[in-house]
Structure formats: C-alpha cells, structure tokens
Design brief:
- Keywords: Calcium.
- Pfam families: EF-hand_7.
- This is EF-hand domain-containing protein.
- GO terms for molecular function: calcium ion binding.
- There is one protein chain.
- By secondary structure, this protein is an all-alpha fold.
- It has one domain: Orthogonal Bundle (Recoverin, domain 1), CATH 1.10.238.10.
- The protein is built from 14 helices and two strands, in the order H-H-H-H-H-H-H-H-H-H-E-H-H-E-H-H.
- The longest helix has 15 residues, at about 110-125.
- The radius of gyration is 18 Å and the shape is globular.
- About 30% of the residues are buried.
Length: about 230
C-alpha cells in the first residue's frame, strides 16, 4: 500500500503557477534555495524584525521618487518608468502581472506597502544577473541586505524547497523555537500569510504578511505625511 498523501502534499503536487511572473518567482526562489540559508530558527528571524523594519522604511524615499505626481500611489505608467530606470528587462505582460500582483486592493495604484513588496520581488528576480548590480544599488544600497534577509527567511520556511510554504512547514519552524503554545502561534502566522486561503503561501503573500509583522503600516505612513504637511503649512 502506498503512503497516505496529506492535503498540503496534494496541493503542492497539483499547484500550477497562474502567470509567467509567478513561475519566474518560484524558479528564482528555488535557485536561491540552492545557496542555503543563514536562518537557524524562527526566533533568529524574530530578532531581526527591528533591523528589517528600519531597512524597509528606507524604501520611502524611493517610493516618492517614482511617485511622479506625488498622489501617494504608483500607477501603471509610473511603474513602467520605474522598471526602465532600474534597467530591468521585463516584458510588457510581466510588468502587467507585477502591477496586478502587488495592487492587492485593486485600486489601480501601488501604495507604499505594496511598493515594498514589489521592490523585493524585483530584487529576487534580478538576483541572478550581476550586470544589474550597479544600477540596482544606485540609491538603494541599504535595501539589498534587508531584501536578502527576507528571501533568506522564506527559504528557511520553505523546508522542501518547492517555492511555497505549507501549513506543516510553518508549524515545524515555530515548534522548533521551543515557544509555549507554538502550535497556535504557527497557525495564526500561517493564516496571516495565506491571503487566498488555498493552504499554500507563495513569496508574494509572505512579503505582505511580513511587512505587517515588522510594523510597516499604511495608515501610519499616511499619518506621518499629514504631520509633515502640517509642519510645512
């Protein structure tokens, strides 16, 4: 008799990327996984939260640079200009997919939090091309270590290196931390990541959840902008 197949294993075997962009992201994650991960435990990840939070906030200046009309979001044309300035070779349909993937609230604009996710996806996808290194670090030298930490964290959680994190992988990662009620914590963390509730977490879903874990909040950013405007008035 063959071994029983769990629900998560079944999902992993049947899962097919919906877009060319998603397929490229999975390939990039798996390629990055061959280099291993510096993360040893979930606790080691949590200890990095303050540093990651600080690093992600450095994206604000870049966001404002590419938000050409200063309306608080990056539209499709501004995104194309952003990709062009970074000299990254994306096809038209890949740019469309990237915009759609990061425009979570579907308001036809990329907000600051969504832009963080977009930049990290771009970082992952350019990772195998050393020719982009000079352009990428132009104005972004502080971001690369932060994004590398995020990729490293996902690689750690993706135990079987298939490009997704399943519920069992999340439970095992937190169980090993030795925390009391680790099972409940793991389930909560997984639910926060699994936005579409399909039992599998891709890199994009992980990134959106992580911005919340470390404290990046869209409303907080809006409040800061309002304070700045009051001071200028």
């Amino acid at each position: 008799m063959g071994a029983a197949v769990t629900k998560s294993e079944s999902l992993q075997k049947e899962w097919v990327p919906e877009t060319k962009l998603e397929a490229k992201i999975i390939e990039a994650v798996q390629r990055r996984a061959t280099r291993g991960t510096a993360m040893k435990s979930f606790n080691s990840i949590v200890l990095k939260f303050p540093k990651i939070d600080e690093g992600l906030r450095n994206c604000k200046a870049i966001f404002q640079e590419f938000d050409e009309d200063s309306n608080g979001s990056i539209d499709h044309t501004e995104l194309k200009n952003c990709i062009r300035k970074l000299e990254i070779s994306f096809e038209e349909d890949e740019i469309n997919d990237l915009f759609k993937a990061c425009d979570i609230n579907e308001d036809m604009g990329i907000t600051f939090t969504e832009f963080i996710v977009l930049l990290c996806l771009v970082y992952l996808l350019k990772d195998d091309s050393s020719t982009l290194q000079k352009k990428w670090t132009m104005g972004m030298p502080k971001l690369e270590p932060t994004f590398e930490t995020l990729v490293d964290t996902f690689v750690f959680l993706d135990e079987n290196k298939d490009g997704y994190v399943c519920r069992e992988e999340m439970v095992r990662a937190i169980d090993e931390s030795g925390e009391r009620s680790s099972g409940r914590i793991a389930m909560k963390r997984f639910e926060e990541m699994d936005w579409d509730k399909n039992g599998m977490v891709n890199f994009k879903e992980f990134l959106f959840a992580f911005t919340q874990w470390v404290g990046i909040d869209e409303n907080e950013e809006e409040e800061e902008e309002e304070e700045d405007n009051k001071e200028k008035a």
